Structures are given as structure tokens and as C-alpha cells.
Amino acid sequence: MAQIKLSNLRHSYSPNPSSDADYALKKIDLTWDDGGAYALLGPSGCGKSTLLNIISGLLVPSEGQILFNDQDVTALPPAKRNIAQVFQFPVIYDTMTVYDNLAFPLRNRGRDEDIVKQRVMAIAEMLEVEDMLTTRAANLSPDNKQKISMGRGLVRQDVNVVMFDEPLTVIDPHLKWKLRSKLKELHLRVKATMIYVTHDQTEALTFADQVVVMQEGEVVQIGTPVELFERPAHTFVGHFIGSPGMNVLPCDVKGGAAFFGGEKVELEGAVQGTGDGAAEIGIRPEFVSISSNGSGVAATVRKVSDIGRHKVVEAVAHDQRVHAILEGEAPNHGDAVKLDFKQTQTRLYKDGWLASTPGGGA
């Protein structure tokens, strides 16, 4: 397996890029450690697939380097990078049995048949497909076909990295959880460096130890699932991760304090810098409480959604929608309420970027 380092990486599909807007990938510097589980997360068009194709060798970047264990592989073709890739749609041979599909990557490299059998049986046991080994792949269900496709990527022990490109897109929703859990289990057992590309936050957060969140060709935050949820470095991260996402509310900053609709809102701590960028308050729905006559921002309830585990309340304050997640009783549509923002979770952002530091009240 390999440590993967991206250094000063940029890519443009234009032959003569003249500004940042011409680049599908803005400047990227990051390192993925050997044996880690990583995810590239972001909406369609954010640059995930471009970055994956650059790592795999299908694209040569306009600028920068790709290093595998400090070896520069930027100009090497895919065959020379020693990688395995699992795609959206299962890549298997329908006329072959499950055993022969799993064996193919090893036989193609001339491995001894005893080693082939040992590896195939080990992967089959991990995937729980031992009873399917003599079945033709054409007769498998879509989820089992994708299992075999994953197994083909994992059967070799000499690869530098295993890359998954939206591997659960075609899987029925009720089977996705099972395959996500299986993939996480496989990583813990084989200890391979894995990169998982997806637009689905649940897939990324349940699989990866570290998640790279991308927006418009730029890496906006790298962190653990807990870090991304609890302290978004950018309003995009707060909005994209969570259901519903973080409330992002326009505000004015005066004397180091934030005012939403003229009402002072206590922040987690001091405001960084003195820039004139557009200021916004960020607070996750989980940290908004509602009362009928307490202190806080005046609002009117517009909608209450009961989703079983909790209720999602949508209120309007100063012409802005504010979501709150509540357990137990919730107000009714049309009720006048007060919204209280938990101070330690209320953050200031300027031009989208985090601009407050911890250290406020309880």
C-alpha cells in the first residue's frame, strides 16, 4: 500500500487557463497516509471525479505532482501505478463464475494457482459469498454483482490504493447500509489505502476516517466525520453535511459582536480578523432550542415534520428560515416562539469561512 501525496495540484480542461475560474481543480495540497480510509465528498461537478482520474493516471494534471510513497507518478499511465478501482456499475464478466471473476486479476498477473485459491477464498469469506463461488455472475443480484466487483479490487495484495467511484449508486436503498458496513469491515481487515468518492454524506461519513469536502474544484475542509459536523470550516460544509444542514443566517458585526435582524446573538468566542467580508451566523438545528416565552430570537413556526426519532421545526425569524431539531413536544404551525442558540455552537463566518474562535459561554 502507499502514502499518497498531492503537491501544488491544479487542473484545467482549457488549453490556456487565465484565471481560477478556468480550473476544474484549484490548488490542492494534501496527504493520505498508508492504510487509511478516505472519502472525497461533494456535489456533482465539484471536481471529485477529476481528482480521482488524476490519481489513477487517466488524467495528467495541468500543474503539480502526485507522489506514491515519495515516488513521482505524475506522468505514469494507470498500468504503472498499481491501483485497483471499483466503479459505479459492477465490472465483472457475466459468463464467468464468481470464483473465476475473483481470480482473474491474479491469474492475469501470472500468480501461482495455490496463491490464487488462497486469496479468492479469503476474499469470498470476507464478502460472505462462499456459497456463490460456482455461480455464473450473470445470475447474481445487483448488490452481489457489486460485492464481486469490490472483491476484484481487493483480491490483490500488492496494490498502492483501492479507489471506489460512487460504488453504491445502482444499489437499492435497503441494501446500501449492508454494503457500506461490509466495505468498512473489509477496510479494517485488509488495511488497504482506500479512497471513496461520493456525493452522499452518509456513505462518506460511515466509511471514512478522514473526509475531504470539495466545492467548485476547491477543498474546503479535511477532517473526521465528527470534526465536519461539530465545527464546519466553511458554510458549505455546514450546509452540505447534516439533515437538515446548518442554519446560515446573515448578520452584522459591530464591535466584535454579531447582530441578526438587529438582535445580538452570543457567539462561541472572539471574532477573528477585521475584514469586511459578508458575515453570517452558523448554528446547527441540533443546537437550536424553542420556547414559547423564554429568551431568544422571536420567530413564527411555519412547519413541523415528525420523522420518528425527533421532530424538525421550521420557523421564520427576520425573514430567514431557521430549523430546529427537537425531541418530545414541539410547537404548532403558526405559533409565536423564541429561538435560543447554544452559544458554544454558534459561530461567525465571513465570506463563507469560519471567523470565530472557541471560548464563549456555556
Short description:
Residues 4-241 form the ABC transporter domain. This protein is an alpha+beta fold and 362 residues long. 23% of the residues lie in helices and 31% in strands.
The total domain count is 2
What average pLDDT do the residues reach? 91
Order of helices and strands: EEEHEEEHHHEHEHEEHHEEEEEEEEEEEE
Structural class by sheet pairing and helices: alpha+beta
Beta fraction of the residues?
25-35%
As an assembly, this protein is single chain
General shape:
globular
Return residue spans where pLDDT drops below 50 for at least 5 consecutive residues.
Answer: none
Keywords: ATP-binding, Cell membrane, Membrane, Nucleotide-binding, Transport
Protein name: ABC transporter ATP-binding protein
Family: Belongs to the ABC transporter superfamily.
GO molecular function, one term: ATP binding
What does the secondary structure layout of this molecule look like, with pairings?
Blueprint: E1 4-11, E2 25-32, E3 37-41, H1 48-56, E4 63-68, E5 71-72, E6 83-86, H2 98-107, H3 113-127, H4 142-154, E7 161-165, H5 173-190, E8 194-198, H6 201-207, E9 210-215, E10 218-223, H7 225-230, H8 235-240, E11 247-250, E12 252-254, E13 257-260, E14 263-265, E15 279-283, E16 288-291, E17 297-306, E18 311-317, E19 320-326, E20 336-341, E21 347-350, E22 353-354
Parallel strand pairs: 3-8, 3-9, 6-7, 7-8
Antiparallel strand pairs: 1-2, 1-4, 4-5, 9-10, 11-15, 12-13, 13-14, 15-21, 16-20, 17-18, 17-20, 18-19, 21-22
Helix pairs in contact: 2-3, 2-4, 4-5
Pfam family, one: ABC_tran
Domain ABC transporter: 4-241
Family: Belongs to the ABC transporter superfamily.
